[in-house]
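$ ./design --mode recover --in tokens.txt
reading tokens...
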């Protein structure tokens, strides 16, 4: 009797886990997409400060492009670590090399740390 009960508990746990897993993954993907949206907003605000420096505009374009590609893949359930790594490197370049207001530098540096943490947790 206890063996049957134990097997039933195991099967119930497996079934519940397999049913709940997609919901957990979707919730996690939504949190990641919220982070992506925040980074895009911060980049746009910082880019508005850039005047006529072509190299700085190119850096913004690169990070926005890679971030958009990453988000597009994530929307269909694919976490593309390569595109995320490209995004992180591009954002690092913006923070390091672009002329930024202090508020924008702080926001982008925090975004960079959050993207790295998210990548390492996946």
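writing sequence...
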């Amino acid at each position: 009797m206890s063996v049957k009960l134990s097997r039933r508990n195991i099967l119930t746990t497996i079934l519940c886990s397999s049913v709940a897993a997609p919901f957990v993954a979707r919730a996690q993907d939504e949190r990641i997409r919220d982070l992506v949206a925040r980074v895009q907003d911060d980049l746009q605000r910082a880019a508005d400060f850039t005047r006529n420096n072509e190299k700085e505009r190119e850096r913004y374009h690169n990070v926005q492009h890679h971030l958009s590609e990453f988000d597009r893949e994530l929307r269909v359930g694919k976490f593309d670590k390569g595109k995320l790594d490209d995004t992180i490197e591009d954002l690092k370049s913006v923070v390091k090399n672009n002329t930024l207001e202090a508020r924008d530098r702080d926001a982008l540096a925090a975004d960079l740390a959050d993207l790295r943490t998210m990548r390492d947790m996946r």
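exit 0
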